[in-house]
């Protein structure tokens, strides 16, 4: 069976958490596409060469989850040749046999416009920054400023800007715990699978 669940949304909205849970529930493979951009940013040097030469071991680096790695990722993610170098890998993953969940910024709009399910997961910037701060600590005002800066860059870039696909189901998790957000996402996927018979 080929079945793609595309999950997009701004930083710390809960895309990865929902993506992992949906993948586990349906036995699908899961790809956190943000990790690809984080790995390119962390490699340093020429970002286009880094993207073209990306290997699985690059995704295993320990420092990819930091705020700094997130900022570096969103800078290299604005370069069209960097994005182009990563398209094929993501599309192959999305349409592989057995079902796949991909989360990122442009999965439903650019990488997999034919995805069977598109979710746009969001929450207020304050709520998202608080969630990220619980993970990374430090100064919460700085985490909020970085979240806002990254959102503005991701939404404002010319190539594959962050936006909800027209046919995406929008899930605003500002007032939802993880359990409720995951249950709603699973319900959307289950309904779509049933609809296909
Ligand atoms: O992948 P993305 O950056 O969108 O977010 P994440 O890493 O999945 O989630 C960020 C944090 O928010 C995690 O610690 C989650 O446990 C928490 N969280 C959530 O994902 N969803 C909620 N409804 C509430 C909290
Ligand atoms: O987990 P969080 O939402 O904070 O970030 P991420 O998903 O790891 O993505 C890091 C950065 O990579 C984003 O701010 C985007 O600039 C970029 N990205 C992208 O442009 N396209 C994607 N499909 C995924 C990530």
TrEMBL record:
Summarize where ATP binds, as residue positions: 9-17
Top-tier EC class: transferase
The Gene Ontology terms for molecular function here are: kinase activity
**Which Enzyme Commission number(s) are on file for it?**
2.7.4.25
Which range is the signal sequence, renumbered to this chain? Answer: none
Q: Which family does it belong to?
A: Belongs to the cytidylate kinase family. Type 1 subfamily.
What is the protein named?
Cytidylate kinase
* Species in which this protein is naturally found: Paragemmobacter amnigenus
Q: Which gene encodes it?
A: cmk
């Amino acid at each position: 069976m080929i079945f793609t669940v595309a999950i997009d949304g701004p930083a710390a909205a809960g895309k990865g958490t929902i993506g992992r849970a949906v993948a586990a529930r349906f036995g699908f493979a899961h790809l956190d596409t943000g990790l690809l951009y984080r790995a390119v940013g962390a490699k340093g040097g020429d970002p286009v060469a880094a993207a073209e030469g990306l290997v699985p071991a690059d995704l295993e680096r320990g420092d990819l989850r930091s705020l700094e790695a997130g900022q570096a990722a969103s800078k290299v993610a604005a370069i069209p040749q960097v994005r182009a170098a990563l398209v094929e890998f993501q599309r192959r993953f999305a349409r592989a046999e057995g079902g796949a969940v991909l989360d990122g910024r442009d999965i439903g709009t650019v990488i997999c416009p034919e995805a069977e399910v598109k979710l746009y997961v969001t929450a207020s910037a304050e709520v998202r920054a608080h969630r990220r701060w619980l993970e990374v600590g430090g100064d919460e005002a700085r985490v909020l400023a970085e979240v806002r800066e990254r959102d503005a860059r991701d939404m404002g870039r010319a190539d594959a800007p962050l936006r909800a696909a027209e046919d995406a189901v929008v899930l605003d998790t500002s007032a939802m715990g993880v359990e409720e957000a995951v249950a709603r996402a699973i319900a959307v996927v289950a309904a779509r699978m049933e609809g296909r018979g």
